[in-house]
Amino acid sequence: MSARQVVLERIRQALAADPPTPTDQGVARTYRTKGRHEPGATALLDLLEERTLDYRAAFLRATPELLATQIAAALADGLARAQDGGGHVIPRILVPPGLDRQWVSEADGEIVADDATLTPATLDTMHAVVTACALAIAETGTIVLDGSSDQGRRMATLIPDLHICVVHGRQVVGTVPEALARLDASRPMTFISGPSATSDIELDRVEGVHGPRQLIVVLLTGVP
Amino acid sequence: MTPDPPAYAPHDVGGLHTGMTFPEAARAALGDSQLRRNLRAATATIRSKRSAVVAEVEDWEELREAGKQIKADAMSRLPELLEQLEEQVTARHGVVHWARDATEANRIVTDLVVATGAREVVKVKSMATQEIGLNEALDAAGIAAYETDLAELIVQLGHDFPSHILVPAIHRNRSEIRDIFLREMPDVDPGLDDEPRVLAMAARRHLRRKFLEARVAISGANFAVAETGTLVVVESEGNGRMCLTLPETLITVMGIEKVLPQWTDLEVFLQLLPRSSTGERMNPYTSMWTGVTPGDGPQAFHLVLLDNGRSATLADERGREVLHCIRCSACLNVCPVYERTGGHAYGSVYPGPIGAVLTPQLTGIATSPTLPYASTLCGACYEVCPVKIDIPSVLVHLRARHVEEQRREHQMPTAEAIAMAATAWAMEQPRRWARVQRFSRLGRLLSRRGRITRLPPPLSAWTSSRDLPAPPEQTFREWWAETHPGDPN
Ligand code: SF4
Known about the structure:
The complex is a heterodimer.
Chain A: H1 3-17, H2 42-54, E1 58-62, H3 67-81, E2 92-95, E3 110-113, H4 120-123, E4 128-131, E5 135-137, E6 142-145, E7 162-168, E8 172-173, H5 176-182, E9 189-192, E10 197-201, E11 204-207, E12 214-220
Parallel strand pairs in A: 1-12, 2-3, 2-4, 4-7, 5-8, 7-12
Antiparallel strand pairs in A: 5-6, 6-9, 10-11
Chain B: H1 22-30, H2 33-55, H3 60-76, H4 78-91, E1 94-99, H5 102-116, E2 120-123, H6 127-132, H7 134-140, E3 144-147, H8 150-157, H9 174-184, H10 196-213, E4 216-219, E5 223-225, E6 230-235, H11 239-245, E7 249-255, E8 259-260, H12 266-277, E9 285-290, E10 300-306, H13 310-314, H14 330-333, H15 336-341, H16 352-363, H17 380-384, H18 391-410, H19 415-427, H20 430-440, H21 442-445, E11 447-448, E12 451-452, H22 460-463, E13 468-469, H23 476-483
Parallel strand pairs in B: 1-10, 2-3, 2-4, 4-7, 5-8, 7-10
Antiparallel strand pairs in B: 5-6, 6-9, 11-12, 12-13
Bound molecules: iron/sulfur cluster.
């Protein structure tokens, strides 16, 4: 017998010897599957801000007219803060292929589109990455990327040390169940809650290990 | 067809045995006051974080109940779910392998790595690969495995053993960690100080090149969704994302009990796990992938489904609920025995209350006979468990099973066996147990001037090396509250 057959047979025997009590009614999902507010409600936007700041990520609000200016300012600020950004080089700013280029039209630096041929080593020469997101979860302060063309492949948001992520107000849901209901399981996904962190030394949280050490969430509202 | 004997995990491979019994190992740990200080400080921090973020979830109890039911449902139809998972992963160009035990899993992974021609692999922290002793197996084949989780790195560089599920280096404080880095990292700044931030940066620099150049990564999985074939890894540092997305080949080793029936089940566990483990509303990074995605991440994906004593555990109707464990480690952080002995005393990669009930079931009780006694049955572990595993009852059940197995073997009960069987009888029913606790004040009976100087054997082996403060009046819970002011657990 193959290992597959053996393992499956062992499990069948284990269950048959002492059958579990069947759950006829199925699982009781009496927990909240929806929050109190509809996606994009002001209360949720405020909560997302509070929870994001709690992780020591930066959070700013933008309107369509000011978005490009604010992204440029956030980039300049974040890059100045970066420890090994090197003050004199021209910053290289990575963008996924489907990003609205207008968003980075005022950014000071070289804009590099990720055409999925850049190697990890090349991505490591990028100073920042600017993306959109699939949605955000207010209660947990989480943004979710699903690999759509305005978010890019996973390594593009991992290797550069500064990640600026634009969230549309209407993309903000209250709870984890509302988020999962809107996501497509077949896509590669990354849930991001604050910058990279570790609690491995005396269970003390320290931000910034292998992932981007700075995360800036830009909330975009007022889109017609 | 007659049922085969239970297929326990092999004795001679992997991390379920370090060879010492709990009393022996605990006695050594109790003599180490630095270890106890490190543990007390760390577990107190995490306990208060956990209770703060749990308290803000209004439907926490409903989530726990759902978590428990989803896991019970999954176990009851495990064969069909595993087949469905295999089908979904295969449909998305992943390759599924089945491993009867640690030896077979190690062989599968080693062969896969050898076939790529790579001589080194990067690893994401994974209990399953520690359980099977994968690093040693790879090493024997001339393949270097680099642990990339900070705590695992500290353990690996310190030539040490993990002592906690979530924070394997919890027994080390910052200055010990600095010393390990200075000794073991060739390119580290000799003036390294012991600020956690500085130590984390040293780890970042140390591993950066490894990540960028790695061709093969090995991970575990927190969850796998049968309905969609989606694998989930929950982490903090980004080392997981590095391993899961940069290399060409990804090999994931997963215990068969990790499978969940459907996508929506994740909405329960993604709320329960982070709050219970690191005490955060959400961990920094959660990665999900389904087979291979062209143009994004590893283009070769292998999933190894591991039994290694899990089917044997499933055969015990009272004991099988330990397979529901999501390895959050909350039960370790509230356990008074763990806080004193540390993780190494449990002699297994699974320490603490969950280790005391999981290890003996994976290996067979005869192999780890002292573990079910490594507890005071205070019940704190049950109260914090996000999937409501009744660890105290399973402990008592395993003690009774051990007694029963011994009696069958020796045809005669020992004194210890009779005492333990009586406790087991009392604990069969919660109400009976409450009465015994209330009337006998077990600890109290044994105390002299407010210290417990002896516990009944086999726990006596470690109380004899260190006095435990006795419960002042009533129950252990009150004593805990008194000696840990401001700590709601
Ligand atoms: S037994 Fe429960 S509390 Fe302990 S690690 Fe497992 S899930 Fe967490």
